[in-house]
Design goal:
single chain; 670 residues; alpha+beta; Heat Shock Protein 90; 3 domains; eight-stranded mixed sheet; 17 helices; HATPase_C_sf; ATP-binding protein; nucleotide-binding; ATP-binding; ATP binding
Length: 670
């Protein structure tokens, strides 16, 4: 079987954008292997840079380092090109290096001809007690050519590989400055540089010389970890070289970095320990990875999902590495997190209070802000997060509304879950923006219309309307989380209550003491000051009760809604109101307001209104009212339709200003 050598090179997956230095790395890797085979006491690798000075130097430093690189020459004092090495070089995908424990795939040299015109190899090696020199060229289309071999008198071994005449696409992409070359070599071969007896790598560029000094990589520590039964080692390196510019994680194979990535969860600036400043790099090695590196050494072949055959997947490995890194850098990360939290608080408190909801105790948004971010970056991040939540919340509400509109019946349990999962998650984002919140309110009005217009079945409208107006079986105080409700549908002022309790026995109301069980108002709003003034007084000034009855005829039962609310009021008057740790009697001066929301047209409702002499509001279309003087209580029977109608009226001016329709249900002035 014959091999088309030129086609092999053409199909080598080497990008001029990301792989411009890969051929150089391959030459250095061969030198490292040659040094290991020779067991040299003082191993060295010299890299010589030859530049194309025919072009005009831009931003030069006087040493020509801004000229593009034409050629590299890599020298070592390794074992040399013996007959066995020459045979392996002539064989594509040779297993020689694997057989002698050096790893390798036997194809890396093809990358040389992907980026350079030709390669010249000169070497001396020892055969028994004699030394020989070998020289040949490696080029397209034949591969090895012009080979010469002869005995030499020099009693030393080594190899020189010259990568001649870089091709234009790669030449333009190669970094030109020597310090950047040094940095990239360090990153790629760090596992070798921190091993025992590493080679001394020196870069030469005309009159300029740069040592890759192992002392620049002090404080090397290692942490072993296991994942799905496979063993890994994380090498923690603190790089003190002035040429390093970022914190990195590299997954390695056969002593070389294969999959590097920047660390995003710590600031991209030097950290500081007792010795001085440094950049942190983590190099992960494992026999497991050595076996799974691709033939071209550009990727580690790990599945996206774990399986019985391949239990280690890419995502799990990266997450485990991040965990190990976070643990190792905990002191530095904790300090940066504290600084980030302070910076975010400064932005939210002094500049953008509308974003405060994004950094609440139940939010992980602050963790998504990169450590070390300044005020501008923090503001930009919060603005994007806010916009995303507005869009997401509005879309979810729209989808919920469409489902309700299409359905014949609505399950009370399901609708409560929708409100808990969809509505409460969306409302905070919308309330931070007036425009978004007005659009949100319009959808809530439409949703209310949809709920009360549906037929019965297993759907309990009382529970559904209750959940929409205020979450059931909950309580809030001190204006905490008062925004997580729609009490504004009934009365905008209710959100200023000192304490609100919903659908719980009054004996469990935190605002009350010494009350008997058996009374459970739907919603009770406690005020220790009047709506308009007297905010500094401690007594219980007002209580607003919202009682909801299912749309449609009221069921016949022993106690009608008016008697229920009267019983609630009497029970509350017998109790005490807690304010700032003190118990204050709820006396006769406490005013009560009761909204009984129900179907006004039902016969039982009309009987109640007549018996207790309720007066009509605008002929009864807007409800009925009564004032119970002995109880100091104002009662109002409110039609379900009036809630949405009044809400549209109150918002009409805002909707008109925003050119937003007032919602379903006709004209808001009707």
């Amino acid at each position: 079987m014959e091999t088309n050598f030129q086609r092999l090179v053409e199909h080598w997956p080497l990008s001029s954008i990301s792989g411009s230095l890969f051929p150089l790395f391959e030459a250095i890797s061969n030198s490292i292997h040659a040094l290991k085979e020779s067991g040299a006491r003082n191993p060295f690798i010299h890299v010589y840079v030859e530049r194309d000075e025919s072009q005009t130097e831009l931003n030069g430093d006087g040493f020509g380092s801004a000229y593009p690189i034409r050629s590299f020459k890599v020298e070592d004092n390794g074992i040399g090109f013996t007959d066995a090495h020459m045979a392996a070089f002539n064989e594509i995908a040779s297993s020689y290096k694997e057989a002698v424990g050096l790893g390798g795939k036997g194809v890396g040299r093809l990358s040389w001809l992907k980026a350079f015109n030709d390669v010249r190899i000169e070497s001396t090696y020892r055969d028994d007690h004699n030394f020989f020199g070998r020289e040949f060229y490696f080029s397209l289309p034949l591969g090895v050519n012009r080979e010469q071999r002869a005995a030499v008198s020099t009693p030393s071994t080594g190899t020189s590989v010259t990568l001649n005449n870089s091709l234009p696409a790669f030449r333009e992409r190669m970094p030109r400055k020597l310090d950047i070359l040094a940095r990239e070599i360090c990153r790629h071969f760090m596992p070798v540089l921190i091993s025992s007896n590493p080679p001394k790598i020196v870069l030469f560029d005309g009159r300029e010389k740069l040592d890759i000094n192992v002392s620049d990589y002090s404080s090397v520590e290692s942490t072993g970890f296991e994942l799905a039964g496979a063993q890994f080692v994380a090498h923690h390196v603190r790089i003190r070289s002035p040429y390093e510019r970022s914190h990195n994680i590299s997954i390695c194979a056969d002593g070389r970095s294969v999959a590097p990535r920047k660390i995003e969860f710590i600031p991209n600036k030097r950290l500081k320990d007792d010795i001085g400043e440094f950049y942190y790099h983590c190099y992960v090695t494992s026999d497991y990875l050595d076996k799974r590196v691709s033939g071209h050494r550009t990727v580690i072949d790990l599945p996206q999902e774990p399986s019985l055959i391949e239990p280690v997947d890419e995502k799990s490995l990266n997450e485990k590495i991040d965990e190990v890194v976070v643990q190792h850098l905990a002191p530095f990360i904790d300090e940066a997190r504290t600084a980030r939290a302070a910076a975010v608080e400064e932005v939210v408190t002094r500049q953008y209070p509308e974003y405060r909801y994004l950094i609440g105790a139940d939010s992980d948004e602050i963790e998504k802000i990169p450590l070390g971010s300044g005020q501008k970056e923090i503001t930009n991040h919060l603005a994007v997060a806010h916009a995303q939540r507005l869009k997401h919340g509005r879309a979810r509400l729209e989808a919920t509304l469409k489902r309700f509109e299409k359905s014949e019946e609505i399950d009370a349990r399901k609708i409560s879950e929708e409100f808990d999962n969809v509505y409460l998650d969306a409302i905070k984002a919308h309330q931070s923006s007036l425009v978004g919140y007005l659009l949100f309110r319009r959808k809530i009005i439409e949703l209310y219309d949809a709920v009360i217009s549906k037929s019965g079945g297993q759907f309990e409208k009382e529970a559904a309307v209750h959940s929409l107006i205020f979450p059931r079986h909950t309580s809030v105080e001190g204006h905490r989380d008062f925004d997580d409700n729609n009490l504004w549908l009934v009365d905008e002022r209710l959100t200023f209550a000192s304490y609100i309790d919903s659908d719980r026995d009054i004996s469990a109301h935190k605002a009350l003491f010494d009350v008997e069980r058996g009374s459970e108002p739907d919603i009770a709003c406690y005020f220790n000051f009047a709506f308009s003034s007297d905010q500094d007084k401690n007594d219980l000034r007002e209580v607003v009760i919202v009682e909801l009855k299912r749309p449609g005829p009221l069921p016949s039962r022993n106690e009608h809604p008016y008697s229920q609310v009267v019983r609630y009021i009497r029970a509350m008057r017998e109790g005490k109101w807690s304010h700032d740790g003190r118990k204050v009697k709820a006396d006769n001066s406490t005013r009560f307001y009761a909204y009984i929301i129900c179907d006004i047209g039902a016969k039982l409702t009309q009987d109640i209104l007549e018996e207790f002499q309720f007066l009509p509001i605008f002929g009864g279309s807007e409800g009925y009212y009564n004032f119970n003087r002995p109880l100091n209580a104002y009662f109002e029977f409110v039609p379900f339709e009036k809630i949405a109608r009044d809400a549209r009226r109150r918002h009409k001016a805002f909707f008109d200003r925003l050119a937003v329709p007032a919602g379903n249900g006709g004209s808001p002035t009707r």
